[in-house]
Amino acid sequence: MNKKYFGTDGIRGTVNIGNINGEKFFKLGLAVGTYFKNLRKKKQVAIIAKDTRLSGYTLEPALVSGLASTGMHIFTLGPLPTNGLAMLTKKMKANMGIMITASHNPYYDNGLKLFGPDGLKLSDKIERKIENLIDSKTINHLSDPKTLGRVKRLEDGNDRYLKIIRNNFPKDFNLKNMKIVIDCANGAGYKSAPKILSDLGAKVFSIGTNPNGLNINYKCGSTHPEVIKKYVKKYKADLGIALDGDADRVIMCDENSKIIDGDQIIAMIAKRWKRKKILRGGVVGTLMSNYGLEKFFLNNKIKFLRSNVGDRYVKEVMRKNNFNLGGEQSGHIILGKFATTGDGLLVSLESLFAMRKGKLASEIFTVYDSVPQKLINIKVKDKKIINSVKCRKAIKLANSLIKKNGRLLVRPSGTEPKIRIMCESFNFSLIDKCINIIKKKIH
Predict the structure, then answer these.
(1) What is the pLDDT of residues 280-334, one digit of tens each?
(2) Is the per-residue pLDDT at 414 higher than 80?
(3) Is the per-residue pLDDT at 76 higher than 80?
């Protein structure tokens, strides 16, 4: 059964259109407060963080009002990376954590990601229960006036988060004599990322650290890696790091300004963890993971499984199979040894830890040869067009052409009104031909 509000990664959309407005966020607060209050913990606590979007100032108060109306006590943390919110939810023994963000989307979008007391994203089953509560009568969830929740702002959220991730590495780990370019996408990591790199002794060149509410992800961050390429070359840096709006994904570039995507980062960590006997079980990728990555794992006798797109689904497969590494080509990478969700800063530190003995980024990230891959996004009014007869016929024809020569994937985006077409092959003309067959029918 399809969900009404939740997509592949929480709830997301354009502000003041559809479900992303103050009225709906008040009802969301009521619904999640009611659901998690029923866990019957002695202390009813929710913690809320956000990225830097202007709309956060309208959505957060509405959400807080809904939660407090159920009797839930709330701590607000301000701008903080998504995994920082997940870690602190668990550390503070809260009933739930809520991240107000639209991740890598433009400023005019917003939404939220929900975490349970274990710091994990919610299952489809729980999301459906919350959806039923959203649509039920408001008066059923209101608390008695004597038991309304209280709200308090915590100013040290970033410091608490950095302390947790710093403790995952040896005390003598440092980045002295290293030059690092960090692009924070004018988003949630704009304070914490430059600070920890600088505290570890690196010479840091920061980009995207001046949020104004409207410039999040704008021509910067992980969706625009060409920016770090330029600055790595300019400053002759050892590594370039680009986060997204809520800092749960990362794309890098080496000292030669060559882009390093999520698949290459996963391959490097898997290879290293296997050598150090840290890797448990195998690795989880997604339907979008490059075939070259799958072949690399096969050749190195590392078990590899694919999940649906979305780091929540990656984590579910990891848990089911007791794996401790998984992620996406986009840079959502879950280091199960340390975290419950993607964390661009944590993955960056793990990569820098692998470089600590003077190794070059180009050396450690040259792990496998990618199969050429082309991805296009087609904006549509209704994503159901993918199920039309003409689209299904086009996809079937394209699949028959690419068979044995590559791989084709057509899917609706879980977070945007787009159809995504991905094709892999060493035959470039065949890639274009297959994509165009489908593209014409969608248009």
Answers:
(1) 999 999 998 998 999 999 999 999 999 998 888 999 999 999 999 999 999 999 9
(2) no
(3) yes
In Å, the largest CA–CA distance within the chain is 69
According to DSSP, residue 137 is labeled -
Task: Quote the strand ranges of 289-364, DSSP E.
Answer: 303-307, 325-327, 333-335
The residues annotated with a catalytic role in the active site are: 103
CATH number at residue 319: 3.40.120.10
Rounded Cα–Cα distance for residues 313 and 8 (Å): 8
Domain around 108: 11-155
Q: Distance between CA 66 and CA 249 in Å, rounded?
A: 30
- 227 and 310 Cβ atoms separated by less than 8 Å: no
**CA gap 161, 107 in Å, rounded:** 25
Whole-angstrom distance, CA of residue 302 vs CA of residue 288: 18
Residue 5 lies in a domain: no
Identify the helix (H) or strand (E) that includes residue 129: helix 124-134
DSSP string of 41-68, one letter each residue: -SS-EEEEEE-S-TTHHHHHHHHHHHHH
| C-alpha–C-alpha distance, residues 434 and 54, integer Å | 41
CA distances from 32 to 1, 43, 110 (A): 20, 15, 18
Looking at 317, 335, 364, the residue that finishes a domain is 364
Q: The pTM is what? A: 0.90
Looking at the structure of the chain, the number of domains it has is 4
How far lies 280's CA from each of 283, 319, 335, 336, in Å?
A: 8, 11, 11, 9
Q: Which of 5, 15, 1, 8 is nearest to 415 (CA)?
A: 8
In the chain, the amino acid numbered 353 is F
Same domain, 18 and 80: yes
The single-letter DSSP state of residue 146 is G
